[in-house]
Amino acid sequence: MDDTGFVYMDVWGDIADQIQMGRVFKINSCKKRESERSLDSWITTTPRSTVTYLPSSELKQIQKERYQRGKLMGIDVTPYMSCPTPRCFHFQLTDGLCESCQRHIQDRDQVIYGEAIIDIRTQKGNIHQLTVYWPELCKLFGLFKKDIPPGIDKEKIVQTFMDLAEKPVKYQACGIVRKFKR
Question: Is 93 inside a domain boundary?
């Protein structure tokens, strides 16, 4: 870990099921993973790993709402049609069937959604790859007075994003990006 307090982590099995978004926790018995880029910190859970949620008395020194900074570099986007139920947005429909709720969704009720992997160059020169879902991607484009092109044309979305290359942003991320700022 470096002075940003940021580390990449793979979480597997029961540990992944125990983690609750927005809660501060400690995971014991992890191991360091070898990375192609020696500057990246990367750890993974093991079968012996355990999760402990920290009591509020230990959280006083943790900065809340801390933003990381970087410059937008590149994007790989996967737009898709999804179920209109918010809890199902992260699932792509297959022949109109929602993998999450198992309902068949009529064409007129399907909504455009998507996932993007955005490369951001940090102030230290490292490249972070961030997972961004459709609502935050729309907000990111909006920060720079850009609209995501209508429809699910991946190439048009990438072209529009490239207008934002090298633009500085601030972001909050915990597995996925929760918020962008300029």
Answer: yes
